[in-house]
Amino acid sequence: MIETKDLSKRYPGGHQALKNVSLSIQEGEMVFLTGHSGAGKSTLMKLIGGIERSTSGSVAINGTKLSSLNRSALPYLRRNFGFVFQDHKLLIDRSVFHNVALPLLISGLSKSEITTRVRAALDKVGLLEKGSFNPVTLSGGEQQRLCIARAVVNKPAILLADEPTGNLDPGYAADIVTMFRAFNRVGVTVVIATHDPAMIQGLGARIIELKQGELQA
Amino acid sequence: MNWFYSRSSAFSDSVCRLLKQPVTSILHILGMGIALSIPMGCYMLLDGADQFSRKLNNTSQLNVFIAADSSDKTIKLAEKQLTELFDGEITFIDQDDGLKQLSKNSEFSELVKNLDTNPIPHLFVLTPLDSDAKKLTDVAQTIENWSFVEEVSFDAKWALKLESFVNLSKILVMMVVLLIGLGFVASIFTNIQLQITIRKDEIEIARIVGATGRFIRRPFLYYGFIQGLLGGLCAALIIFFSVKFGLNAIQPMLEPLGFYIRDPDLVTLSSPLLFSVALSLLGAWLSSNNHLKKIDY
Ligand SMILES: Nc1ncnc2c1ncn2[C@@H]1O[C@H](COP(=O)(O)OP(=O)(O)O)[C@@H](O)[C@H]1O
Ligand SMILES: [Mg+2]
User: Right CATH number for B60-155 from 3.30.428.10, 3.40.50.1820, 3.30.70.3040, 3.40.50.970?
Assistant: First the structure.
C-alpha cells in the first residue's frame, strides 16, 4: 500500500533529513516509526502524505508514484490520508464541529451528510457534546481526540499519526493508542511516529526505526 | 446543492472577515471609492465641457471686414474668392446696411446723422456647415492674408482652445485612471496578502486535509470581489450625490452658457463598479496565486 524507494530529503539550507529510505507497508498494517528526536520521522510522514516533496527517490501509494502526479491531482491523493499531529493544528477561531467538518467541506459533501458524519466522528472520540465548543477551551487530551476525529471523518484508508501522545500523561496516551488499534481493526492502515518506547511496548506491532535519517535494520 | 453549500460557506466566511475588522474595512472601501470617484467625476465634468465647446463651435461665425473705401469690384472679387474657399453660408452686409443698423440704436443715431462719409466697413458673415473649429481656423488664417481684407474676427478661437484643452484633459484623466487602476490592484494585492498571512495556519491545515488550490483561493477571491463591489458602489454614490447636490446647485449659472452636466446615468454609474470589481478580482487572484506558488501547491 505504501512503498518508498531510496527516499531522500534535503531541506533548503542543506540539512539531510532522510537518506535512501526504502520500505514497504502493507494494507491493514499497524506500524510504529521510532527514533530519536531529529531522526527524520516527521519528514518521512510528510513525504508519504504528499505534504512535502522528496529530493530524490520515490513514494508510491497503491502503486501510484507521487512524483508522477501533477499539482492539481495531489490534493485528491491527500484525501486518502488522515493526519494526526502532536501540535494538533486546529482552527482556533472555529467550533469543534467546524474543525471536524473541514475535510468534508473540502470534499464537497452536502450539509446534511457533513452533519451526520461529523457527529459520528465526534461520538467515536467521545466529544459529541462539545461540538459547539471552541477548541482552545478543551484539555490537551481532548484536543488530541478532536484532531483524531478530523483525521478519520473522511474515512481515510491510511492514518498517519505524528507523535500523537507527545505531551499527554500516560493514561491518556494509552487511551489514544487503543483508539488507533480500533481503527486498525476495521481495516485502516495505521502509521504512528513516536520517540517514546513506552508507547510501543507489548503491542506486537511492527517497528521501523530511523537513525539520523537512515533506516535501521 | 453541495456545490452551493461549499461556496456559500466560503462566501459568508469572507463577509465575516470584512465585518470582523469594521474600521479597517470601511476605511479601505472608502479609500477605494474616493480614488475611483475623482477621475470619474473629472471625466463627467470634461464631458460637460466637451459639449459646451461643441455648442460654441456650432454658433461660431467668421466675420470678414472689407475696408470701407473698397470699390464694388473689390467686393465682387472678395465674394468670389470666399465662395470658392468656404463651404457654408455667406451673408453680405454692405456698409450702408451696417450704418442703418447702427442708426437704429438711439445712442448712435445722432452721431450717424452728422457723418460726411460712411466709416463702417463692409462685412461678410461666414457660417460653417459643420462645427469643425480647426477647419474654420485654417479658413480664417487664409482670409486674413488677402490684401483687401481689413480684419477677420473669429469668436471660435477660444472654443478651439477649450476643445483641445478638453481633449488633453481627457487623455490626462485616462492616464490617472490607469494609474489608479494599478494602485488599486496593488492595494488589493497587499490587502489579500495580509489576509493570507493571518490565515496561514488555516491554509496549511486545509492543504493537509486535501484542499485544492481552487478551494484555498476561493475565499480570497470572494473577499476581493466584495471589497471591489463595495468600493465601486461607494464611488458610484459619491459621484451620484456630488452631481445631484453639488453640481446641480451651480447648474443654473452654467446653463445659459450651454455648459450642461448630465445627471449620471446607469452606464456612467456602473462603470466604476465594473472597473473596481474587475481590478479587485485581478488583485486577489494574483495575490492568492503568488502565495499558492510559494507553498508549493
Ligand atoms: N522545514 C524544515 N527545514 C529545515 N530543516 C528541517 C525542517 N524540518 C525538519 N528539519 C530537520 O530535519 C531533521 C529531521 O527532522 P524531523 O523529520 O522533524 O525529525 P523527527 O520528527 O524524527 O524529530 C532535523 O534535524 C530537523 O532539524
Ligand atoms: Mg517529529
Answer: 3.30.70.3040
